[in-house]
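Schema walkthrough. Field components (list of strings):
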Amino acid sequence: MPDLADRFRVAPGSSIRLADLDTRDDAGLTKDQVRDLLDDVQKKMFVLQRRLHAEGRRALLVVLQGMDAAGKDGTIRVAFSSLNAQGTRVVSFKAPTSNELDHDYLWRVHNACPRRGEVGIFNRSHYEDVLVVRVEDLASKETWRRRYDHINAFERLLHDEGTVVLKFFLHLSKDEQRERLLERIHDPERHFKFNPGDFDSRRKWDQYVEAYQDALERCSTDHAPWYVIPADRNWLRNYAVARITLDALERMDPQLPTVKVNVAEAEAMLD
Amino acid sequence: MPDLADRFRVAPGSSIRLADLDTRDDAGLTKDQVRDLLDDVQKKMFVLQRRLHAEGRRALLVVLQGMDAAGKDGTIRVAFSSLNAQGTRVVSFKAPTSNELDHDYLWRVHNACPRRGEVGIFNRSHYEDVLVVRVEDLASKETWRRRYDHINAFERLLHDEGTVVLKFFLHLSKDEQRERLLERIHDPERHFKFNPGDFDSRRKWDQYVEAYQDALERCSTDHAPWYVIPADRNWLRNYAVARITLDALERMDPQLPTVKVNVAEAEAMLD
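Field assembly_structure (string):
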């Protein structure tokens, strides 16, 4: 079995060119194989989440980023379908509200972090503050440049205080995005997902690639690694995210709290 | 097929005696039948939740109440297992924090309500403010007595502004609770669920029954009905909650937003 975490992790301190990373890499797996593998991973994820929740001491935070149509929603729906909603907190970050803008950009993110025992999933995240903010000139270069350090320090805090942080960049090719946007255009059932804004970001594709590369290079750390997940094939994308998340849960190895129960005494209390 | 919503709904204005309601009522269904029925209900719930989320105009709030060991956690885990975590918000209400106590008792509840497009599930709720608060004398009689009106007005607000409210009382017998607490005592894997506090509330069983009856009678309304769900059999409990929730979603009949897409124009925007 290939070690997907190893295969897709951005080594801290390395430089990467997204153009060199194959968006159709299947890691030597077939769709048929992955069906069974995913099923097994989901069952184990359910069991470990339950223990994490019962333990109540640590948290897991999964960050999902990617170009439009890369499949952030689909990943949550499929890769994490076995999670118990009690103990799971999904937060979608949209354009900040005026109340949020009245604080620093990490304020709303911190507020949305999972509590001990929870699995948190961010659909977009604080990385937008060095992506869309940079490409769309929503802040000066001086402002967004110093944010990589803030982000690393923030994620270090989360890590040190008991939250395991995993970050997935869903790596979609421009051609595959075209196919997916065409589907949205042609299928009335998907029209509600159609957003002309998706076309804007497509026109600035190269700038986004550059911004992503900087974020991946500067913010892939031992304590909060980035993974570049090939996203042209949904089944590989879902499985890779699920598998790497399960690896992290297995390393955390959450334990049911040991509670000493005096059986005789407890029985006597029951009328 | 029995109409479970009809069967278990507390008719607004009626008076009820929980002792007269069978905690083992199976509604004429068998465990085997229910396995397939639940599977079908869960699939439909997933589809309708997706539409509710896409529609983004209304919300659904499910309130779960019941004595200790009645199965609130299990209901969330099983009855709602098919829900997409993105679009589901589970909130467990515990003893209020000092910050929460610095506000009125509905403040934290209001804050935890689902947003448009979401399914919210309350594991315990504002009803604790007329249950444990009443039985344990945490507020004066004068204080808790006027809360039924607050609660009805609050739920009316939610209803009027687009949130469908369903409230389930998981009706467990004292004998079955005994069996379940014994299991927790004897199974080391369940020791972490053991809480001596559960025994306290058991010793005040009759007072809790009285407090529940008042809440069910005074706060079962057309806009936010209470359902008394027989809870001695987990499979019937899970199915009944899921089925009645699906009924509500079917009545809501959420629609995908209609977005007018000019296909030719959109295609031309794709390079």
